[in-house]
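User: Mind token order:
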Amino acid sequence: VMRTWVLLSAVLWCLTGVRCPRSTLFNAKGFLYGKTGQPEKIYVKLHQNSPVLICMDFKLSKKEIVDPTYLWIGPNEKTLTGNNRINITKTGQLMVKDFLEPLSGLYTCTLSYKIVKAETQEEKTVKKRYDFMVFAYREPDYSYQMAVRFTTKSCIGRYNDAFFRMLKKILDNLISDLSCHVIEPSYKCHSVEIPEHGLIHELFIAFQVNPFAPGWKGACNGSVDCEDITNRNILQARNRIEEFFWSQAYIFYHNFNKTLPAMHFVDHSLQVVRLDSCRPGFGKDDGLHSNCASCCVVCSPATFSPDVGVICQTCVSVLIYGAKSCPTSNKNQPCED
């Protein structure tokens, strides 16, 4: 008879998990000065306000400027004026509210001012251009790939299947209140020769912990940044599952005086790897976005992302930021991979 009570008792040892605060890269607070000759790359979290972009370099900001004028050009190459989304001050400072994918792109400001010779009143107009490349981004969605091993009496027998199903049910129950669940579970039985212990049979179990159990949207409470909530939940789910398996080792080695049942957890066998995915229209690119390498950055024109992968694929017919599909031409030419 399989010792199912061993696993069930371990549940009582599990902690509820510690809620880990999420720190956001580029929190859109503060001011950013321009630089002549090179665009500044700026990353703004979706639905957050952009930093204040200053139409001036830091060195010039410390000097007296005569008759300054500021001209902002947006990603659509049209002159920007203040509205309910874009705020432009009289001193040339620009901020974009509630940043969305289509607002990504090149923001250019031209500063014009005069240099006046006091003796002759001679005036000279100077123009400087400052470029800001602004990208929307979101946090990746986390999931965890886990692997663990249990000993078994034999690789032949239905009790291995029963044990596997019971373990999945226990783990699902452990994290169900977090709207997380176990997906893609699998196991294989192998014979393992261990020094000084001879040949034993072990179940090599693998599964993924995912934050999108049926009804997961209910946990969002209408939040537009639901990945913050789902990521917090999946971190708690990971903590609970890790504690569950750590408790297995504790129970065996402290409560059973090392007299182990035939099926038991193999100490130190738990392996955990985080898997990131991006929402459609977003992807990762360490080369292009090295300052936001862990972010899911909006796909640029000529690229798209139709699924929850992490790569923006090439599609020359895409003209917008954040494309989720690749439109074909009239000749039905396929998109490039």
